[in-house]
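ok so I'm stuck.
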Amino acid sequence: VIPNAYYLRNNPNTPWLYKSGVKYAPEPSAGKFEECAGIDLVLSRKWGDCDDLAAWRAAEIRIKEGRPANILVYWRKRGSQTVWHVQVRRTDTGEVEDPSRLLGM
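replied:
not stuck anymore, here's the structure
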């Protein structure tokens, strides 16, 4: 989130996540390697997974809206696998937002 906040401060014309044309897509190597991509990479490839989108949205809330937000990480066991999901929580209201679901998950 800090690199995303830095990116937004230095690129104030960055589109809002939900107006950027970016969609949700699972990471191709899911389960083997996890990359938390920054806004610049997500914009260039036009997709992000849950951690990419949540990190962008949390930074956007903090920098563009001036409101506090955190990332929520959830996990559960599915058989022998651990399944992770990341969302955003507005800490001033407690509202939880799921950018992945809003962008096609």
